[in-house]
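Summarise this fold before class:
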Amino acid sequence: MKHAAPIMMKQGSGSIINIASIAGKLAYALRSPYAVSKWGMLGLSRTLAQELGEYNIRVNAICPGPTAGDRMRGVISGRAKELGRAEAEVEKTYLQSTALKNWVDPANVAAAVVFLASAEGSSITGESIDISSGYGL
């Protein structure tokens, strides 16, 4: 953002899309440094939306929930070790914490980014959009 904003200001438009996390909106036990960084990203995104709006620059954040893939498998493995539980049990806990009882598809996160960057998203700024399968509802 530090380097892109001046270029966008000069051209008089732009769209900055930050990838935060649903952890930036909920208490997230055993992952406090991660959660704090995501809470900070949401605050920064909203603040920059206000500061850069006069230059027609939109700033938004995407908040994925538990997303299918290697990274989530690593989170589950680490959490299982911290708690002294089986990985399957921890995985089940994550899935049960989503309203849809499934992992977020990375393609859905990508589609939200494309939408926010498009003309159809041109009136959206300062928002954080959850793509979380209803995690934590």
User: Anything to note?
Assistant: The longest helix spans residues 32-52. Helices lie at 4-11, 32-52, 70-83, 87-96, 106-117.
